[in-house]
Design a protein that fits this description.
Blueprint: E1 2-18, E2 21-34, E3 40-45, H1 55-70, H2 77-87, H3 92-110, H4 114-117, E4 130-132, H5 138-147, E5 153-157, H6 163-173, E6 178-182, H7 189-201, E7 204-208, H8 216-225, E8 230-232, E9 251-254, H9 256-259, H10 262-274, E10 278-281, H11 288-295, E11 303-304, E12 317-318, E13 338-339
Parallel strand pairs: 4-5, 5-6, 6-7, 7-8, 8-9, 9-10, 10-11
Antiparallel strand pairs: 1-2, 2-3, 12-13
Helix pairs in contact: 1-2, 2-3, 5-6, 7-8
Magnesium ion binds near residues 184, 208, 233, 253 and 282.
GO biological process, one term: amino acid catabolic process
Protein name: Dipeptide epimerase
Organism: Gemmatimonas groenlandica
């Protein structure tokens, strides 16, 4: 297989700010694997600074791995993913792009969408949340919540200096929406404890990553006192992180850009299920190409947060989407993604 990697710059409709900062412009890498017969599979890398990745480090990783793909059998996805684990250990975004492209290629060759290859029913996909990032002021926040009126489930980013006020405003503007909260590791256990009542008061039904990633005992402390289910995101990168989170959280948030492969995502689902945990899948700021890979296994999830492309003003791809939060998957083969 020949590997082609191209950097794409995309923009969010509003600056996407979370507890540790954010931007309006993001760079992703579009990966195309072309086999000897001309068949092509696509994938996307959405690098995360938090995990030490940039679009440049993804491009370097692609150059490093291209020779391995040149002599690889495109059906041997498991073997290629094991090689990726060894060679690109510290670049999950890059691994994810190649894994997605291999799955896209295999399903296209078989002439079926990936969800069908996995034996899934698109109707079983849970509704996706739509994220309200940290806004600079109350008026901006109100406008953003009103703009998101089509989405019945909102995920509010907290971890700023006016969290309580944010909750009150969002609930005022969206009186009937289901509300979820993501603090992106911003709080101490004491702060999290103090937030439980304000969160309950506005009817928040999920609290994502209140504490620092390593603070598993802190998560357990919060969960034991929380009427709201607690979900681990930054604390849960791959399947082997899950056993130590048992009892400390109610569920996990999988992201392909964190775990680095579709097969690892499947392992995470299986391990979490084995421990009776709730399973969610999230995303980074990604285009429809990146979101598609997760959308295809979304029927296996309890909760979806696949709004990465819906937050963009210039998505370069078309394919699976989330109008009103409903994950739509077509019968198009592979990931079902086209260049716009
Ligand atoms: Mg999160």
């Amino acid at each position: 297989m020949q590997l082609h990697a191209e950097m794409l710059t995309v923009h969010t409709t509003h600056p996407f700010i979370i507890a540790r900062g954010g931007f309006s412009e993001y760079r992703v890498v579009w990966v195309r694997l072309r086999d000897a017969d001309g068949a092509e599979g696509w994938g996307e890398a959405a690098p995360s600074r938090f995990y030490g990745e940039t679009a440049d480090s993804v491009m370097a990783a692609m150059a490093q791995f291209a020779p391995v793909l040149q002599r690889a059998n495109s059906w041997s996805i498991d073997a290629i993913e094991r090689e990726l684990e060894k060679t690109l250990r510290w670049n999950a975004a890059a691994r994810c792009a190649i894994s997605s492209a291999l799955h896209d290629l295999a399903a296209k060759r078989l002439g079926v969408p990936l969800w069908k290859l996995w034996g899934l029913d698109p109707k079983a996909a849970p509704r996706s949340t739509f994220t309200i990032g940290i806004a600079p002021d109350a008026e901006t926040l109100r406008a953003r919540v009103r703009d998101a009126a089509a989405y019945p489930i909102l995920k509010i980013k907290l971890g700023s200096t006016w969290d309580r006020e944010v909750l009150r405003i969002v609930r005022e503007e969206a009186p009937h929406a289901t509300l979820r909260v993501d603090a992106n590791a911003a709080w101490t256990p004491k702060q999290a404890l103090a937030m439980l009542q304000p969160l309950s008061d506005v009817g928040v039904d999920m609290l994502e990553q209140p504490l620092a990633p390593h603070d598993i005992e802190g998560l357990r402390f919060v969960r034991e006192r929380s009427p709201i289910p607690v979900v681990a995101d930054e604390s849960c990168v791959v399947a082997t992180d899950i056993p130590k989170l048992v009892g400390a959280v109610d569920g996990i948030n999988i992201k392909l850009a964190k775990c680095g492969s579709l097969r690892e995502a499947m392992r995470m689902i299986a391990v979490a299920r084995a421990h009776g945990m709730r399973v969610m899948c999230g995303c980074m700021i990604e285009t429809t190409l990146g979101i598609a890979a997760a959308a295809h296994f979304s029927p296996l999830l309890d909760d979806a947060d696949l709004d990465g492309a819906a937050l963009l003003s210039d998505d370069p791809f078309t394919g699976p989407s989330i109008p009103n939060g409903q994950v739509t998957l077509s019968d198009a083969p592979g990931l079902g993604v086209q260049r716009r």
